[in-house]
Every structure is written in C-alpha cells, then in structure tokens.
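Problem: given the chain below (298 residues), write out its structure.
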Amino acid sequence: MSIQGSAQWSGRTDGTPWMLRTLVVLLRRLDVRVLYGVMAVVVIFYIIFRPRGTKAQYHLLRHRLGFSPMKACLGVYRNHYTFGQVILDRFACYAGKKYRIVAQGDEIMERWMASEQGFVVLSSHIGNNEMAGYSINRHDKTMYVVAYGGEKQTVTDYRRSMFSKANISLITLKGDDMSHVFVIHDALTRGDVVTLSGDRVFGSEKTLTVNVLGAPARIPAGPFAVATAEGIKVMTLFVMKDSCDTYHLYFRPLNSIAKAGANRRESMQKLADEYAEALSAMTRKYPYQWFHYYDFFA
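Solution.
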C-alpha cells in the first residue's frame, strides 16, 4: 500500500521489485529501527509532494477529531511517519523478524474458529491488519483474505508465503472478474473464514452511507451484503501499532446478525452502522494510524 493523495487509490507499494527485494535483504541484517530513522526524513517529501493526501489527513485531525491547527499539522507528520514504520514492519516480517502481539478478545476468535460455522472478519485501513496474518497461530479452519489485486507481484508473493504458514489463502480482486464471489460463498458454506475490507470502495461498487467520526461517509456494500445473505456472524479486527516491536490485536463481534424474513437492506445498514461505530472508536484511540490518503468523507 502506497501513500496516495488522489481519491483513486492505487493499492501498490512504491519501489521497483529489485528495490523491494533489496529492502528485505537489508532487514535481515539491520535492526528495523535503523530504517525508521531514514523514514523520518523520507516522509517529509511525501507530505510536501503529495498535497492531497496531506490535506486529507489534516482535515481528519482538525475537523473530524477536533485537534488544534498546530496539533493537526504535527499530527500529519506523525501519521505519515507511523505509516512508514508500518510498511517497514511488514517487510521486516518478510525478512523473518517477529513482533510481540497483545490480543484483546482473542478468546472469541478461538471459540469461533473451533465452531463448525463460518464467519466474516471485517478489516480496515487503519493500523496494520497484515500483521495478524503473520502472527496468528495456524488453525484447521482456513481463512480467506480478499485483497485488491493491483499490488505488485513481488509483495503479493511475500504475502502468500507468509499467509500460507497460518493456513491463510489470499484472494485478489481483478477488475470485473467476479470469481471471488463463488470462492467466498463456498468458503463460508464449508465453515471457513473470510476477511473483507469494510472501509474502502474500489471502482463502482455499490455503497452504504454510514456515520464515521461524526460525518457521513460511503463504504462498500459488498462485505455487509455477503454477511447478510449468508446469515452468519461477523467480527471486526483492528491491528494497531503500540511500539517499535509490539502490535495490539482487537477482536470485536458485531451484534447485528440478519434474521430470517428481515429486510435485507435494513440488515445490511445495521451491520454497517455497527462497523462504523467500531471504526470511529478505534480511530479516536489511535488517531495517527488512519491510513486513507484521500478524502474519505467526500
């Protein structure tokens, strides 16, 4: 995931395949904190030369979270720097580094994993959700992670390799190809787990309007349509960076499960509203780990 300023998110990590592979080699020999120091300078150029992303972050901190103008300006830098650290942490994992994981609500995840019924996990573009896939224990129940297919092949290959160790299968979305819909349905029918992004719209997907941080925003209808159509349980997963070597996993079940005979659109909206509340609460708790570099509230 690269830092982008436009409303059209590219979904691609910056750098050539050679550069990305070299970064992994470096991280096998260097403490990732050394590169944090380099990143502290590099992000200044992102802030200057990608002004739309900078403006979007300032708007979030100033108008959605109520920061003072000075605190919001400093917060824009802190946000970009934290995002840089998150990207480096991912590559450090590719290089074999292990991070300390603190989990909250993991007993719920374990219980759902042990059941025969499948369920949906809603991820978000705050924090570092990939870290969960690199850190959770391997289960008999397969988890399918649905991700945007525009990422560079080098990064996708690293992800697949890391995910396979935890019995996680990566499904990439490619243009108008709807084959993933059948994969999702089959996985949930078998009692497996599907992870879907709940906060980012790709292309011309149908959307739902929800209240995020006190303002209306559009989020994709697809994840909520899947959960409603299947009539299954849903939980949110947030993976937030606490320190240089520690991540905090938050598992939270959502209560809005579609009931037989219920209005489908209303069921989707209730589930989306509950997700939006969870997203807002976690953003207030970790205000510098919101990684939407475009006007999310447009």
